[in-house]
Each structure stands twice: as structure tokens, then as C-alpha cells.
Amino acid sequence: MIGHHLLLCATPSKALCCPDPAVGMASWERLKQLVREWGLEDAGRAEGIVLRTKADCLRICAEGPVLLIWPEGTVYAGVTAERIERILREHVIGGQPIEPWIIRRLPLARPPAAD
After folding, report:
1. DSSP state string for the chain
2. Which residues in the chain land under pLDDT 50?
3. Does the pTM exceed 0.90?
């Protein structure tokens, strides 16, 4: 079961939201590191695994790097390497979004469970 899928617009080919690719790359490396270290990719995790994808562009050109958290559809801006840990701990694990960093909420829906 997938608990969350994190899509990070970290190194866009057209850097419209984050003009410094080094910031996006540092965020991506920190995200990978913490997901691994904290066992969030463990298939036996009761809350479901946490997938991560480095996206070229999420078409949200504002204050990047930008992180989209599925299934909630929460979009965070300014996702630096320093912010990743708090987002994972409070939102992904703890279920409490960090409101001041959210720039958009997208209407994503989970498909119905199969019987």
C-alpha cells in the first residue's frame, strides 16, 4: 500500500520557480536520505510506503523548489533541504500540514479501494 507519494520539482529544465538548481538538488538529496534513514520505504510499514519522485516541472511556477504531496494534494513552496525534515516529520508522518508553507491545495482523490 502507498501511504504518500512525494513529487519534488527539484531540477526543472526551465528554472521558472527555482532559479538556483543547487537548491533543488540539495532538497532532493535530503529527501532521499531521510526517506531511506527513517524506513519510510519499508513495505511492512503500517501507514504504507512513502514514494518519492523528482519531477522536472509541476507547472506551479512559484517559490520553488515545490513539493506536491499525494493523496492530499498539498503543495509546499520554498522546499529547501532544511525544510524537508520538518515536512516529513509533521505532515507525512504526523498528519499535520505546515500551513504557512502551503501555497496550494489541489483536488486529488484516492481511487476507491478494491474489494
Report:
1. -EEEEEEEE-S-SS-SS-S-HHHHHHHHHHHHHHHHHTTTT-TT-TT-EEEEEEES--S--SSSSEEEEETTTEEESS--HHHHHHIIIIIIIT----GGGEEEE----PPPPP-
2. none
3. no
